Amino acid sequence: MKRISILLFGICLTGCAATQPTATENAGLTFMHMNDTYRVGAVQDGSAGGFGRVVTVLRDLQAQGRDVRLLHGGDFLYPSLESRLWHGLQIVEALNFMDAMAPMYVVAGNHEFDRRTPERLIDAVRASQFDWLGDNYRFETGVAEVDTALHSAFTFQHDGKTIGIFSLTAHRDHGGNERSYVPIEKDYTAIAETVIRRFEAAGVDAIVGLTHLNMWQDVRIAELRARHPSFVFVAGGHDHEPEYSPSSDVSAAVVKGASDARVIWLIDLAFDDDGLPVVEVQQMALDMTVALDPEYQLIADKWRARLLETFPFLEARVGAAAVPLDAREVTVRGRESNWGNFIVDQMRGAFGAPEADLAFINGGTLRIDDMIDGDILFEDISRTFGFSSYLRHTTVTGAEFRKIMEAGYRGFGGTQGYFPQISGFRVCVDRSRNEFDRIVSLQVPDGDGWSEIDDEKEYSLVVPDFLYGGGDGYEIPQDRAVSRPASELIYLVLDGILAAQSSGLKVGKAVDPSNPRFQELREGKEPCFP
C-alpha cells in the first residue's frame, strides 16, 4: 500500500526533549479521532471525508506497527436521510467494521437521543460491537443488556500501561436532548475531575477525555491538567469544523474534527523517562489524495443500493441552479449562504399573501454539507433537511426581534448550528461586544433603501416550530397569536424549485457583496453595510 503523508502539523505537548523517540521509532499507541458523522459514504460528491478514507489511514498506521484506538466524539445515529429509514443502524455497521480492525470507543452525542422513546437506542446498542462510554449520563432504557453496556471510568491496556478515558455529553441546557431514558448531569468539570482522581488512585498512567460538548466547555475541562499532569488531551465533538486548543503545563490539548470525517485527528501517545505521557497531535484532511478503502466501500455501496431501492426517484432532476449554491456546513453555520437565502425566502410566503416581513432558520437545520451545482436532484433537497421542519407564523415588535436575533451571534464565532440564515432584513454584528449586545444594526427594507427596524412597530415573522419553541436559544414571545405548525419546509422548497422549473427558470443567485444580509465588523473595516 502506498504510504500516506499524514502529518499536516505536529505539536509536542509534554516532554519535548530531543532524546525522546519519535512516534515511528517507538511504534506505540495512536488515537484516531473523528466526530459528528452522518453518512456511510463520503460527502461533497465523494471528494471529501467518509469512513472509507478513515479505513485507508487506519490500515497505513497499522502497517507501521502502531497500536491504533479509534475515538468518536458523538452524533452518528441521527440526523440523515438514511436515519429516517434505518435509525442509524447503517452507521453502526460502519463503525463495527472499523472496530473489528481497531478498538473503537464512542461517547453519545445529543443526536443519539433524537427519539423521544428508547426503542431505537436499544436497537443501536444491541447491534454495536464497539464500546459506548459515558460518565455524566446513564442509559435507563429498562433493558438490562443495554443499560449495562455503557462503560464509565473506562480503561484499557497498552504495552504494560493503563490508559483511562472519561466521557461526557451535553446536557439539555447546552444543546443536548432531555430524555427520560438518558439522565444527564451538567457539572462537567467536577465529574471529569472525580473520574480523573479515581484513575489516579488506581495507578492509571495516562488520562484522556472523550466529549460531546461546546468548545469552551472542553477548554475549561482541559484546565484540570494543572492539577493532574497525567491528563493529556480532550477529543471532542458537537462542533462541525476543526477546533484546536494547544496544551501547556496547566491545560491539556483539545481537538475536534470536521463533520463526516472531512478532517480527523491523529494523536500519538508515548511515555518519557519519568513515566509521564507524551503526545503528538496531528490534523489530517481526508480529501481526494486519500483513497477510499475498497473493502469498506462494499458497505457504503450496499446501503446506497438499499436507499435507491426505497427511493428510486432520489436521483431525479427537479430543477437547475443558476449559480453554484453553497450548502456546506462551514457556510450555512457561519456566514450568508445563497442556498440558505433561497430556502428562507420561500418561508416568508409559506402562509400566503401578504408574505411575512421577516423569517430566519438555524443553520444547523440544513444538513447536506455540499455544493449544489447545475442540476438540482431530489436527493439534494432530501439531504438538506435532516429533520421535519414545520413552520409557525406569529408577530413580534422590532425591539423584541432585535433581542431574539442576539441569540444567533453569541459565542466565539466560527461555525455554530444556531447561526441564522435570514430573509426580509439585514444585520451587522460586532463580536468584540458582550454577548446579547452584539447587533450594531438591524435593518428592514424601506422603499428603495433600508432603515433601522422600528422598536415599536409589529412585524410578521415565520420560523420553524423548533425555534418558536425556544430551540437553539432563541426566545420568541409566546403571548401572541400564532399559527399551528404547518407547511413543512422541505416541500415548500421543492415547490419553489418545481415552480421555477415549470417556467423555464433556474433558482438561486450569488450572494451580493454590495448588499449583504449579514455583515460582521472586523478591525479596520468600514462601518456597517456598503
Structure notes:
The protein has 530 residues and is α/β, with parallel strands linked by helices. It folds into two domains: 10-297, Metallo-dependent phosphatases (Purple Acid Phosphatase, chain A, domain 2), CATH 3.60.21.10; 311-520, 5'-Nucleotidase, C-terminal domain (5'-nucleotidase,  domain 2, Alpha-Beta Complex). The chain is built from 15 helices and 27 strands. The chain is globular, with a radius of gyration of 24 Å. The N and C termini lie far apart (54 Å).
- SSE class: alpha/beta
Task: Give the CA-based shape.
Answer: globular
Total number of beta strands: 27
CATH topology of the largest domain: Purple Acid Phosphatase, chain A, domain 2
At the first level of CATH, what is the class of the largest domain?
A: Alpha Beta
> What fraction of the residues are assigned to beta strands by DSSP?
25-35%
Major β-sheet, in short? 8 strands, mixed
Quaternary form: single chain
Q: What is the count of DSSP helices, taking H or I runs of 4+ residues? A: 15
Question: Can you list the strand order of the major beta sheet?
Answer: 1-14-13-2-3-4-5-6
Cα-atom radius of gyration: 24 Å
**Alpha carbon gap, first and last residue:** 54 Å
CATH superfamily of the largest domain: Metallo-dependent phosphatases
- The CATH architecture of the largest domain is 4-Layer Sandwich
- Which parts are unreliable, with pLDDT below 50 for 5 consecutive residues or more? 1-26
Share in helix: 25-40%
Mean pLDDT, as a whole number? 92
Number of domains: 2
